[in-house]
Amino acid sequence: MSNLLSQSIEQISREKGINQEVIQEALEDAMVAAARKYFKTEEDLQARYDPESGTIDVFAVKKIVEKVDDDAVEMSLEEALGVDETFELDDYVEIPKPTVEFGRIAAQTAKQVIFQKVREAEREIIFDEFSGQLGQLVNAIVRRSEGRDIIFDIGRTEAVLPYSEQCQNEEYRPGDRVRAVIIKVHRLSRGPQIVVSRSDPSLLIRLFEMEIPEVYDGTVVIKNAVREGGERAKVAVASRDDAVDPVGACVGMKGSRINAVIRELRGEKIDIIKYSDDIVDYTTNALNPARISKILIYDPERKILEVIVPEDQLSLAIGRKGQNVRLASKLLGWEINIKSAEVKKQEILSQLEEMVSPSEAGTLANLKGVGEKTLSRLREAGIESIPDLASKSVEELAEIPRLGKKTAQQLIDQAKEWVPSSSESESLPAVETVQEEDQTEEVVSGEEVMEPEADSEEEAEKTT
Predict the structure, then answer these.
(1) pLDDT tens digits for 311-346?
(2) d(CA 313, CA 329)
(3) DSSP 245
(4) Do residues 72 and 41 lie in contact, with contact meaning Cβ atoms separated by under 8 Å?
(5) What is the rounded distance in angstroms from the CA atom of residue 290 to the CA atom of residue 220?
(6) Predicted structure pTM score
(7) What are phi and psi of 257, to 5 degrees?
(8) Exposed end of the chain (fewer CB within 10 Å): N or C?
(9) Pseudo-torsion of CA 274, 275, 279, 281, nearest 10°?
């Protein structure tokens, strides 16, 4: 009997990978459950496995007290001394239960307890094992589909491939062998749930480590990798050895190395890019094969780049549905705005025109007191700009219907402040004059625009 029980414990421990002590505890709990079912008692029953004899003894535990309130769990000192003279108050007495053949119900209860304990221990081992393998590659076999999710067999347990982690160009049939990367491990009531991915960039990195020796030994370092699963990926690589070309090492002879990765990813296009600490060079490499004319760092704090390309390279740089520039932006960690050389030229010309001849927003519309109605009346009188307004006299403006002398004087004073005198214009260089106008424009544009139509009408009536 002892040999048989010990052999069973060893076999279960070996098959399930569970410590023998866990199985022994499960047996003890099972015996306690069966005994409580058989004896129908409220006593505090416990069990102890003896590895020497291979038996499990069941006994009731009672505490020694002065006054017994519950004889199911307590024993008087006098009664305890009758068992053993060495007992003292607050000691615990173990009272052996008779060894009997438990009934069918008690045996079934013991069996369920053993299975539950072993299953819980097995789940805990699986959780600990796979939670330490996040980001690692696993070989899987497709078992079945549950809704839009795919269930994989990964050896000791099953893993789920959610729809969000699938590549849209792939089909999964039962029995197919695929590689996936572990991204999450959940602890659920029914056991650990391992979540794997086929679209995560870490899968691409693990495949590079498997197929490219220089990546595996650390000679070539993968700085970053981004993917749109099943369609396209970009990988930035750098070499720690000046004698090793990182891009060439990843591509291999006639593309042998990179083709092995592409086959595993079922035809996904992969761009291998040489990493650079210089953001301009890095951007140029990331947007390959498009030809770049110029790269401007538009906002270094917000990490915004402006890339100028020839007209015939615009669609190539942007890519199909913006894929090329989108992946390049993720790879760099910068926002990339791509413009053609012609568009950029028009922007520069427009800015120069605004500097040389102020726009409408910087003239009449920005003068204090000029609302929509006043602006309309001034234009009807042939006044289109601030210089036109500054050249008029108060009497000339007052002749405009519903525009009083007071308002006319205010408008002329503002216009003269806006337009530099002829002597100042002649004495200042052209660039300085433009700068002065720009500065003045900023100050005026910050003022609140008012519509003094009521005052103008009253002034006009008084004048009449």
Answers:
(1) 888 999 998 888 999 999 999 999 999 988 888 888
(2) 18
(3) -
(4) yes
(5) 25
(6) 0.60
(7) -75, -50
(8) C
(9) -20
